[in-house]
Design goal:
Largest sheet: 6 strands, mixed
Distance between the termini: 41 Å
Radius of gyration: 21 Å
Strand order of the largest sheet: 2-1-3-7-8-10
CATH architecture of the largest domain: 3-Layer(aba) Sandwich
Low-confidence stretches: 1-8, 141-162, 261-281
Number of domains: 2
Strand content: 5-15%
Number of helices: 10
Number of strands: 11
CATH topology of the largest domain: Rossmann fold
Shape: globular
């Protein structure tokens, strides 16, 4: 069974593994490097995911948060096909309950400053032209990335005004730690989540299609993990991103199917009542009304932040000015995406 690499178009997979830390507050994670190697082997296996090695960027033990954020943002901007991000390492929560991905230099007492906040990754996803965006997070508290997708209005904002065509798979819920083997086993083992994902993909799924999507994989992965007493994974997808053909089904290896065109999710009518293929069904008035509500909400947030910014400048609070300006940029990006989504539903 082989795949046609040309069909991947301008796609990029970024694999980040952090196994060594400067501060004693973080235990070393040798299993992280093994997990990155396993993911790379799976993605580049021509009988499975079929990515070209040249389309896979491996980042081991990054030290600079700013350099990593810039690198991810630039790679995301260049990607128009499939953007896949995999991270394995320690995940921490800031004082504002935000998920933060650690780098080798992250200080356990100041993760919001010295770690990579999920908001940075989310913004890179938001500004990418990729048709499909996939995030796989193998770290503690990774489910908070799913909460961050939702914003204030939970499902409504996630589906209508956030990152279209995205899928996030996490190793744990928002309040749970991830699981790794004992230290004496980590030199040769992967983390528990990645090990189960790798084993599942390599074994295949009898009775499933020739190409497996995350909608096929997730229930089986969850069952495998919970049956062993390991943390339950979580996921969230928008549009038909969960239908993205992630890997060939090893259980149907003899059939040698051709890879789906351009790795895009198959055209089908989505839950919003519109077709994601060439023809489009009319969107219901209820959905349009909901989308209009999201636009109004983001407009109100922009107006409030502009007032906060004016007050901070008037009082000379430079720290407040910087934080409000950063939040304002994010909210304006959300507003632009909400307006775009509304226009699509009305068209």
């Amino acid at each position: 069974m082989t795949t046609d690499h040309v069909e991947y178009g301008a796609s990029r997979a970024v694999l980040i593994g952090v196994s060594h830390y400067d501060h004693a507050g973080f235990t070393p994670l040798p299993a992280a490097q093994n997990s990155v190697a396993a993911m790379h082997a799976m993605l580049s296996d021509p009988a499975l995911c079929g990515w070209s090695p040249g389309q896979i960027t491996v980042i081991s033990n990054p030290r600079s948060v700013s350099e990593l954020g810039i690198q991810l943002t630039e790679l995301a901007k260049e990607t128009t096909g499939v953007l896949l991000l995999y991270y394995v390492g320690h995940g921490v929560v800031t004082e504002r309950a935000e998920l933060c991905l650690t780098v080798s230099s992250t200080h356990p007492g100041h993760p919001g400053i010295s770690g990579l906040r999920w908001e940075t990754i989310r913004h890179a996803f938001l500004n990418s032209a990729a048709r499909v965006r996939v995030g796989i997070l193998d770290c503690c508290f990774s489910g908070r990335a799913i909460e961050a997708l939702s914003g204030p209005d939970e499902q409504l904002l996630a589906d209508l005004a956030d990152i279209r065509g995205s899928y996030v798979l996490t190793a744990s819920k928002s309040n749970r730690t991830a699981h790794v083997p004992p230290p004496d086993q980590q030199l040769t083992a992967c983390t528990s989540f990645t090990a189960e994902l790798n084993d599942l993909v390599r074994a295949g799924m009898p009775g499933k299609p020739d190409w497996l999507s995350f909608s096929d994989i997730y229930p089986a992965l969850r069952q495998r993990l919970t049956a062993k007493g390991l943390p339950a994974p979580d996921r969230r997808g928008t549009d038909t991103a969960d239908q993205f053909a992630f890997t060939a089904n090893a259980a149907t290896r003899g059939s040698s199917p051709a890879h789906p065109t351009a790795l895009a999710p198959p055209a089908r009518t989505s839950d919003h009542g519109r077709s994601s293929g060439g023809s489009r069904a009319r969107t219901s008035p209820m959905i349009i009304s909901a989308a209009e509500g999201v636009v109004r909400q983001q407009e109100q947030r922009v107006a409030r932040l502009l007032g906060d910014l004016e007050h901070a400048r008037a009082t000379g609070d430079t720290s407040k000015v910087a934080s409000v300006e950063a939040e304002l940029r994010n909210v304006r990006a959300l507003l632009a995406q909400a307006i775009k989504s509304l226009d699509e539903y009305k068209s």
